[in-house]
Each structure stands twice: as structure tokens, then as C-alpha cells.
Fold this protein.
Amino acid sequence: MSYLFTSESVSEGHPDKVADQISDSLLDEFLAYDAESKVACETLVTTGQVVLAGEVKSKAYIDIQETARKVIERIGYTKSEYQFEAKSCGVLSAIHEQSDDINRGVDGRIDPMDQGAGDQGMMFGYATNETDNYMPLALDLSHALLFELAAIRKNELHLMPYLRPDAKSQVTIEYDDNGTPLRIDTIVISTQHDDFADDATMQSQIKNDVINILVPRVKSKYKIREDVISLFTDDITYHVNPTGRFVIGGPHGDSGLTGRKIIVDTYGGKGAHGGGAFSGKDPSKVDRSAAYAARHIAKNLVAAGVSSEVLVQVSYAIGVAKPMNIYVNTYGKSNVAMADGEIAKVIDRMFDMRPKAIEERLKLRNPIYSETAAYGHMGREPQIVTKEFKSRYNPKGIIREVELFTWEKLDYVDAIKKEFNL
């Protein structure tokens, strides 16, 4: 019997994502000037106000207010009627030095590879061959809808001239008993908008534009995947701004906080999640770095053909470099004559999962994190970019060439095939 599965996404203008992007932009600023910075910062956004908290150990001095305002402006909160605006909002910082008790677990070792984990916990990585980027389809489509909606707002506003920054999406997929996608059952879009007519007229116009402008743009992204395009049937149920009105939004409509969208950030409810947020944390925090490493492993395993679906778990004790365990689950879909426990032992041998080794393998001591803070940390295209960091406190600035989304690289496929005789 078929079944339904749903995932959601939120836009860069969603209040929680505004908070994530500010936290990660602060992290990038510290890492740009001091690659060994230890950062764990949280952001709260609400009507006309940004509050920053957390702990930092760094040789760098950055312009916290300017960094936060640049993020808010880039997202699109530039009008006073939003009641949260880049130039006029208050920015309060309560960031302080990192605790010595925490720092002793991650610094001061004779061998850098003995750097301990910044906290205890378990982290998961997941991959599936449902999509070309090895992400769950419902989440991938949810991200794509909002990514295109933001592109329209920023670059082609004449198509949907009422758009404001805050938005959410949700996609429900019908699967058969074997886990093969059959059709898109439901698409939900809630997008903040200008107050341009009566409620019924606004809702009708926005729904019409979602179906006739937004969805075709998303379908075009999958033009080489006929199996995905075929899922866009004529009987999709659409719920567009189902309350009928979404004028008040962003941090004025609802407060935002770093780390409240961890399922959006990862796999949309597929696989598993250890509970730790990513944004605002430097890579000594295994909540982030080990989750990236586990995704890297899972994706390469699926790409190599070990299984069509893989979940990888790793866990740590604070201050201890060697992980407590490596766990692999192939959901009974393994293509190799080995039990999952045996696969895990091979992975443990192939991948050094000590925190410092992860940092070096995935090049995580670089200012690469602001790009991760919206539209998902996983499933993105690896790329090399040049970034410039400059402020009144660092007037000469610094230019860094960095590689983004290194954990998405398929650089271990050949080695895995050799290990598993594929």
C-alpha cells in the first residue's frame, strides 16, 4: 500500500533563518581573521531588535553590529513597514569569552590530532539516491520552491511584485511500498506579501502565481530528471497562504532564534538527527563538523553503490578525540555481502573521525558558513569562491579563497568501490 511523506523548508527571511545567518556570518568574520577562533554564538531577532549571546575565543576583533546589519540588508529587510529593518534595528551584544572549562577540552594538546570534541552527543549523516544530490525528494523540492521564490523577489520582482522576505514551503510525496516516489500529493506555500487588495483577491492572485510561475520554474530545475517531472501531476493539492493573509511576517510577526530549524537544515525528517544545531558553531563543535563528516560518508557510500540509502551515526564524549562509535544502517538495501556492522568497521578504518582530522579533511577552518545558513546545509553544490572581509575595525580587509560544501564532494567513491569490490 502506498504512503505519504512530508518535508518542509523555510526561506532566508524566516525569523529563525535570519538568526542562523547572523550567527554564521559572525562565525565567518572571526574565522577569516583568525582560523583558530572558537565560536558558539546565538542570535535572537524580534520587532526592531537583534540580541547576540554566546562565547568566543579569538585573536580577531570584528564589527558585530555591522556584520548583523549587512546580513539583514542582504536578506531584504530594508523597509520601515517591516518593523525590522537593517539600518534602524537595535543590535545588543552579550557575547563573552569562552569558558576555560570548555576550552581545556579542545586546546592545549601536544598533538593537534588529540584535540577533543567540543561536546558530547551523537550526529547523523544520511543519503538516498532519490535525487541527483542524494537528498530526500520532499525536502529537495521544498528547498527549491523557496530558493526560486527568493530569486524572483530579488531579481525578477515584476513577476510577483508583492513578495516580502518571509516564506515557508511544504511538500508531501506519495511513495509505493518499495519507497519509489509516485507523485506529489500536496504543495503548501505561505509567503509574506504586501497589502495590495482585499484578502480574497490577494490569496487568489498569489495562488495563481505560485501554480503558474513558481512551480514551472522549479520543474525546469529537474528538466533532465523525467522521473521527477512526472511527479508534477494535474491533481496536486495546493494550499497557498491558507490563512488568507500574510502581511505581518519576519521577526516582527514571530521572534527568531538560532538553531530552531535543524530538520530543515538536514534531511527533512528522513534518516535521523542527533538534536544539535549547526549555525554559529566553529568546527571544534562536533554537532556541526561530525554531522558534515557523517553526511560525506553516507553520500559517498550511496554514490559508490554500497546501498541506495544509508544512515551513518557517530558519537563523542566532550574532550575526547576518538569517537565512541560508528554505526551504519543500509535499511536492508545493501548491495554488498556484508552486514551493516561490518560495513561500519570498514568505514571506521577508512575515515579518521577525530575532530581535528575532520576539520582538515573537509577544510572547515575557513569562513564558509554563512552560505550554509539558508536552504539546507546538505545537498548543495561544492564550489570555490573568493570572499572579501572588510570593516571599520579591519579597514585593509582580507580576501580569502575558500571551498564551500566540501562534505558534498564525491571524492571517496573510487576508494569505497575498491574496499567493497564494487
In short: The mean pLDDT is 95. Residues 70 and 239 are 33 Å apart (CA to CA).
